[in-house]
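Box S2. Input/output pair 1.
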Amino acid sequence: MSSKSGGGGSKGGPISLGVAFIIAAVLLTHSPWFSGKIDELTAWANGKGSSTVATAPAIPGKTTPPAGPAKTDAAPAPGTGTALALLESLPVKGRAPKTGYTRDQFGSAWTDDNTDSLGHNGCDTRNDVIKAQLTEVTMAEGSDCIVLSGTLNDPYTGKTIN
C-alpha cells in the first residue's frame, strides 16, 4: 500500500516542510532580536498592539534615536529606524577594478553545444529560448533558427508584448 504526500515523493513532503517551519520558529524565537518580543507580538496579533512603528535592529557601532509614533493618515516619511534609513547607511562603492575577465573564459555565449532538449538542433541558444517563449513567431526568410518577431505573454506582468 502506498501513500501520497503533497510534496511529491517520500522526501520533501509536508512533514519535511513542517519540521523546517518548527526549526525556523525555534531559531527565530531564540534570537537576540526576538527576545522579549513574544508578548508584544501576541498582543499585536490579537489586535491590541501598540501604535508605534517597529524599528530595525541596532547596527553595532551606530547610534539610532528612537522612532516616533506612526502616522495613521499617511505613509510614514523615511526616517531613522526605517528600512530606507538603513539602506542609506550602506556605503556605495565605485566600479570594481578589472581583474582580467574575458568572456572567452566561459565559452561561446549562445552555443548550440549543450545537453538540453534543444541542444544540437542547429540553432543557437538565444534563438531557441526566444522561439520557445513567444507565440505568433516570425522567422527570417529561409531560416528555421533566426527569430525576427513574435508575441510574448509576459508571466511576470501578465501583459502581452508584441
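Box S3. Input/output pair 2.
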Amino acid sequence: MQDSVLVAGAGPVGLALALALAQRDFEVALIDPSISDETAPDSRVFALTPASRDFLQKLGLELGDCSQPVLQMAIADCHGEGCDDEFDIRFGQREGGEGEALAFTVKYGDLRVILENCVNRQSGISLYANSHIETFESGDSGIRAALTGDVSFEGALCCAADGARSARRREAGIATVEHPYNRTGLGGVLTHEKPHEGVAYQYFFPAGPLALLPLPPDATALHRSGLVWVEKPDVAHALAQFDSHELGHEVQQRINDNLGEMQGEGPPGLWPLSFRLALEYVKPRLALVGDAAHGVHPLAGQGFNMGLKDVATLVNVLEDARRIGLDIGSLNVLEGYQRRRRFDNTALAMGLDGLHKVFGCPGSLPRFVRRLGLSVLDELTPLRQSLERVAEQSGRRIVQ
C-alpha cells in the first residue's frame, strides 16, 4: 500500500504521470470519468519543448510522423494599422540549419492516443474507465477511496490531475488566486496552399495573439498548421460558427496571405482563458499537478510543458523518498515537490500575464515599446544564444 498511488484525471498530464510512476515500480490506479473507447475529439495543438519531447521519449512514446519540428519563430506586432509583410523578430535555427528545433508540435488527439496505448501496455497500472471517486478518506496511514462500480482503493497518495476545475483541489480546501482574461481561445487545424517550412507564426492583435503552429502532412493535406487564436468571447464564438472556407479566409486576410489560401480542417474548439494559481500544491496525502495547480495564458504555449515538469519533479521526489524509507504521502515529502515547482510555475505564469497586458495595450507608445523590445532582442544575438542555451539546460533537468 505504501507504493500505491491514485491518479485522478487521465488527460495527457495524468496519463504521463501514471506511466512515469509505473515505470518506477509504483502501483497506480488511474481514473477519469471521460475515458472511453471513443475519446471525444480535441482540436488543440501542443508545442512541446525539446526537454518535454525528450521526457516523453524516455517514457517510451514514439511521436513519429505525428510530430513536426518548429525550426523558426516569426513574430509580428499587428496593433493599429495591422500587419505588414515584415516580421518584428525571427529566431530559431541558424543559417545552414544548425542547432536543435525550438519545439515539436503535436495534435492533442494524436498525443492522447499514443499515451493511452503506452498506458495500456504498461504493467502496474489499473485503468478505471468512466469512473468517479464516490467517497474519499485520508489519514495518517494512507488514503481510501470508493470508486464507481463498487471498486475500492487503498494507497499512500492521491495525485490530482483533474484539470482547471479540480474536484480534488476543491474538496481539499486549497484556495486559488485567479482572474479571467475576458478572452476565449479558438483552436483548430488549417490546411494551406504554401508550405510552412517549419516556421511558427505569431501575430499580436489588440484582442490577443493569433498563432499558426506547423504540423506534419497527413493523408488528406500536404500543408497544415495548428491555429490558436485569442479573441473577445463574442468574436471567438462567432468565428467558431464559420464554415471551413470562411474561417480559412478570415485567417488568410489577417496574416496577409503568408501561407496562401487556407481552410479549416474540422470544427474549431473554444475554451475560456484565465490566470489561475493554487496557493498550495500539496496537502497530506495529496499533490496537484498540471492544470489543477496552475493555468496560464496560451501566448507562449507553455501550459502542457509546465504540467510535464510537474510530473517529472513529483516522480523524482517520490522515488527519492521511497528509497530512504519515507512515507511518500507525508506532508514533509510532498513539500519538497511544492518547493521545486511552485516558484517556477508562479514566475512563468506572472511573466506570461505581464506579456498579455503589454501586448494588449493600444496606442502608439505601447506599440513603440513593444517593437523596441523585440528589435533589441533580435539584435542581441550573442545574448539571445546564451539565453537559449540556459533555457535548454534548465528544461533538460526534467529528464535527468
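Caption for Box S3: Residues 331-359 form the longest helix (29 residues). The CA atoms of residues 88 and 352 lie 19 Å apart.
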